[in-house]
Every structure is written in C-alpha cells, then in structure tokens.
Amino acid sequence: MGARDGDSWEKGDSQTNGGNQPVPDSNASKYGERAENRYQGLLEATLAGALAWVLGVFITFVTARSTIRNDLRTEIIESVTGDSLTTELVIWTYFNAHTVPTAFPQEGVFRLAQANQNVVLEGTDWEPMLLIVPPIVLALAGFVVARREARRVDAATLGDLIATGGVVTVGYLVVTITAMTVGTVTVGDAIVRPDPTEAVVRAGLVYPLLFGGIGGALTWLLE
After folding, report:
1. 82: left (phi over 0), alpha (psi -120 to 50) or beta
2. 61-81: per-residue pLDDT in tens?
3. How confident is the model at residue 36, as a pLDDT?
4. Could you list the residue range(s) of the whole structural domain that residue 141 is in?
5. Can you say whether residue 116 is alpha, beta or left, with left for phi > 0 and alpha for psi between -120 and 50 degrees?
6. With CB atoms 3.0 to 4.6 Å apart as the test, which of 20, 46, 118, 207 could cross-link to 96 if both were Cys?
7. 21 domain-assigned
8. In what order do the strands lie in the sheet with 185-187?
9. 123 Rama sector, left if φ>0, alpha if ψ -120 to 50, beta otherwise
10. pLDDT higher at 132 or 108
11. Where are the transmembrane segments (predicted)?
12. Around Cβ 2, how many Cβ atoms within 10 Å?
C-alpha cells in the first residue's frame, strides 16, 4: 500500500506545481500560438489583397484619367446614359489591365459596337503599359504578407511563403466582385460591364494566386 501510495503521489505531483497548481501544457500553448498566428496571417493577407486592388485602380486613375476622358467611346456612352461615368470607366480600364474585356451587348444603341473591348490591349500609345500594374501591386502585397509571416514563424519554407503570398487572393477577389458590381452600367435593357466570368476567374483568382505567390517566393529569395 505504501509503495502504491508513493507512486500515486509522485504521478500526481508531476502534473501539479507544489501539489496545488496545474503545470501548463506546453503543447496546448504552442498549438494556440500557432492558431493565433494563422488567424492573424489570414487577416493581414486579406487586407493586403484588398489594398492591392485599391492601389492598382488608383494608379490606373492617375495615369489614364485624361486618356479615358478624351476617348470617343467615353463621349458616346456618357451621352447615351446622361451621366458622368469616370468611376465606371476607370474600373473597366483596370479590369482591361488584367486582360478582362468590357462586354457590350449587341442590341439597342450598342448593336454596332464591338462586343468585347479592351482599351489597354487595343491602345496605340502607352496604354499597354498598364498591363504591368496588377502584377506589380499583387507581387508587392504577397511579398509584404509573406515577409511578415517569415518573421512570425520559425523555419518557414518556400512553399509556406508562396502559399502565404497567394492568400491575398481572398481580399482581392472580394474587391473584384464589388468593383464589377459598381462598374456595371445599365442603359434600358442593355448592360455594359466587365465580362463577369473572366473578371472573377482571371482578375479575381488567377492573377492574385499567381503574382501573390511570386511575391511570397521573392521573400524566400531575399531573406
């Protein structure tokens, strides 16, 4: 009985501090810390993706505003709608920079217009330079969030950082869908907007996954 009681006392004492206070479970503590880091990383990447979209469309606005305002197509569509469409036209142009065309319905006043238009790809001056804007802002966003992740997590691998950079897709996709809605123009029964499928798939998913991931890879190369 005495030996058993002694063994029981030793086992119980090994799980307590002074026989009264439980010893913290180090494994549970580490798991909680990792979960908190993942949650924080997800929030940061989502915010970075959204800010990348805002930065990209701002650069487009600053560099292309005068060209958009002087375009004959701008005058035509604004004369038809009776409204100033600067916001919508800048959004269309930024989608065009992702090679996503603006879709014009082949009916009503637009029946003679080209069905899919891209002022960036069809530009004859500096407009094609806008093609580099989405890759740059997305790679920058991916680089920033991956660098923070590398400093927060020990021994982060190349795959970890590429995946972290790609998470900017979450915020970028949300703003892409929102911008597509804001950039929709209705004239009677006709709807002019960025091609919905290409906007979501190419601009909202492919671009941020690819270039955000590249930004994450750059973090690994430069660390």
Report:
1. left
2. 999 877 776 665 666 777 776
3. 57
4. 49-222
5. beta
6. 118
7. no
8. 116-117, 102-103, 190-194, 185-187
9. beta
10. 132
11. 42-64, 129-146, 158-180, 200-222
12. 6
Residue scoring higher pLDDT (174 or 83): 174
What was the pLDDT predicted at 38?
66
pLDDT at 222 over 80: yes
The first and second tokens of residue 76, run together, are: 């035509």
Going by their DSSP bridges, the two strands 185-187 and 116-117 should be labelled as unpaired
CB 211 within 8 A of CB 138: yes
pLDDT at 109: 62
Q: Give the pairing type, strands 21-22 and 190-194.
A: unpaired
Q: Mapping DSSP to helix (H, G, I), strand (E, B) and coil, where does residue 16 land?
A: strand
Does residue 91 fall inside a structural domain? Answer: yes
**Is residue 29 domain-resident?**
no
- Tell me, yes or no, whether 97 lies in a domain: yes
Question: The tokens of 128 are what?
Answer: 């094609």
| CA–CA separation, 184 and 193 (whole Å) | 5
Whether the CB-CB separation of 147 and 57 falls below 8 Å is answered with no
Type of residue at 101 = P
The tokens for 67 are 């060209």
pTM of the model: 0.80
Number of structural domains in the chain: 1
